[in-house]
Inverse folding.
């Protein structure tokens, strides 16, 4: 689970996709993630996925997408098996279709999250008139995912060093064994949030209502072209998906 | 009586998952029973990574680590923890119980001791650590120094053969450091092996005789504290600063022949006195 979450983590990079206005990328992700819900034809969904791949290649994040898919493999297999087992009327293509939906959904958002800095996303939220406190909470949540997972590992190591065996015991015992790990983690994080709040206040956070931003978003000609391409291709694919062209 | 090798590391290579660079590059190391050793080096030199191999939290990619004759690859952390007590740097990463007594008894419960015996043993060790008055208080309300001692107590309680302390002096005032040193010396005098991971040069100079220096995932020097800490080359490579007495001795080298562990103040003063008591030397001044 942690590995899959970390798969979405932004790592610094540069490509035409990285430089696009984040609003265009958000629209792209929303459009393509909703496109996968208009049809349950496996062939159409495969086409949808295929359209996304070039974006990952241009964005130079195809390798990270593959890593992410590798981490998500247990879920993918699970979705596939559940559909085969518990869907009365579905055949193998139905199961493939549901699995593809999940993959496309993740891929569409991977294009956004793997190529967009959390700061860029925050700017979009500010533009949407979301109060800055919430925007900041969002960016900080993203910022602290790797820190948290690192700390979790240290705590697990520390308690194992004192003889804690997480692998042994029945379900109830195992859950109880997680207390020595969760308590230090939560206490530590609450303490950190106080320290962080103090540090921010001492640097004047919240001093004025109208804060300014170091980075400004500019909607350029390239962004306009990308937006147009996204809209046209999405509408085209939408109509295509509704047509009775798809064999299975 | 020849002492047996209690920790044996042979050609140990280790790389963290997702990392490109090896964190440990061919470590060879032998630590004898009852030794008191410091592992020094800058941040990221691989000190903590190395000691995490001693109780099997990390397993070598190449080479092997043997602790009390057990190959760490073939034993679980819980098994090895009985021999090696590892005290982590930050007490906040392990404190969880509602009372100091419970925190101390945690390992004993994991090892399956019965409650009565565990409580007796925990009280014994808390008394030694000067924490007996806090038995029923919450460990979260203790001061930094007390928390440190609590974490050491929670490991010493099951009497491991080897005690590993990761950066024990960070954030501790002088009084706490002296207290720590006393604890270390006393446990060592009972024949236990102690490994202190630190970059606190003054602490090592004052209390520890044998030093291992790491840099960039390798051991670059090992030996007597006076030789290592006064060797400009080694210290430079490890990005450490010689202790103050070491620098003084270096500057007086041409006049005075220091003997013994001159990095300890009493021995240093004795050397100086001996030199001054010699009439010829007195005349030269």
């Amino acid at each position: 689970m942690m590995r899959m979450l970390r798969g979405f983590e932004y790592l610094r990079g540069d490509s035409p996709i990285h430089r696009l206005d984040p609003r265009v990328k958000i629209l792209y992700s929303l459009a393509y993630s909703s496109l996968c819900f208009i049809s349950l034809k496996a062939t159409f969904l495969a086409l949808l996925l295929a359209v996304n791949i070039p974006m990952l290649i241009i964005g130079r994040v195809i390798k990270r997408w593959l890593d992410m898919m590798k981490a998500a493999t247990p879920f993918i297999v699970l979705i596939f098996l559940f559909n085969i087992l518990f869907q009365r009327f579905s055949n193998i293509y139905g199961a493939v279709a549901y699995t593809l939906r999940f993959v496309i959904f993740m891929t569409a958002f991977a294009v956004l999250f793997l190529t967009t800095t959390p700061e860029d996303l925050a700017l979009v939220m500010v533009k949407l008139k979301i109060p800055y406190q919430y925007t900041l909470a969002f960016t900080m949540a993203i910022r602290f995912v790797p820190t948290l997972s690192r700390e979790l590992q240290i705590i697990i190591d520390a308690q194992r060093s004192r003889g804690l065996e997480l692998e042994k015991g029945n379900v109830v015992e195992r859950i109880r064994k997680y207390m020595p790990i969760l308590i230090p983690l939560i206490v530590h994080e609450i303490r950190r949030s106080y320290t962080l709040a103090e540090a921010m206040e001492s640097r004047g956070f919240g001093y004025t209502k109208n804060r300014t931003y170091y980075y400004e978003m500019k909607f350029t000609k390239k962004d306009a072209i990308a937006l147009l391409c996204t809209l046209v291709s999405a509408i085209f694919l939408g109509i295509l998906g509704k047509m009775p062209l798809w064999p299975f | 009586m020849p002492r047996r090798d209690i920790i044996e590391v042979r050609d140990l290579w280790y790389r963290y998952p997702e990392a490109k660079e090896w964190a440990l590059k061919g470590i060879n190391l032998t630590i004898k029973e009852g030794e008191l050793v410091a592992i020094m080096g800058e941040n990221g030199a691989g000190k903590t990574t190395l000691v995490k191999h001693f109780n099997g939290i990390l397993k070598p990619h190449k080479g092997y680590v043997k602790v009390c004759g057990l190959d760490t690859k073939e034993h679980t952390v819980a098994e090895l923890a009985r021999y090696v007590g590892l005290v982590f740097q930050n007490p906040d990463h392990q404190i969880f119980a509602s009372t100091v007594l419970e925190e101390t008894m945690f390992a004993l419960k994991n090892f399956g001791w019965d409650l009565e015996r565990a409580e007796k043993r925990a009280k014994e060790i808390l008394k030694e650590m000067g924490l007996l008055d806090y038995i029923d208080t919450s460990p979260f309300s203790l001061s930094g120094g007390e928390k440190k001692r609590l974490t050491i107590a929670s490991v010493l309680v099951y009497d491991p053969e080897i005690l590993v302390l990761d950066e024990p002096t960070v954030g501790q005032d002088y009084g706490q450091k002296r207290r720590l040193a006393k604890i270390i010396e006393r446990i060592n005098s009972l024949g236990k092996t102690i490994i202190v991971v630190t970059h606190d040069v003054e602490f090592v100079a004052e209390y520890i005789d044998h030093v291992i220096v790491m840099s960039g995932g390798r051991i670059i020097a090992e030996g007597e504290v006076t030789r290592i800490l006064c060797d400009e080359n080694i210290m430079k490579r490890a990005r450490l600063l010689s202790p103050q007495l070491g620098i003084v001795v270096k500057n007086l080298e041409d006049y005075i022949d220091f003997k013994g562990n001159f990095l300890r103040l009493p021995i240093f003063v004795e050397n100086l006195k001996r030199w001054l008591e010699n009439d010829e030397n007195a005349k030269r001044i």
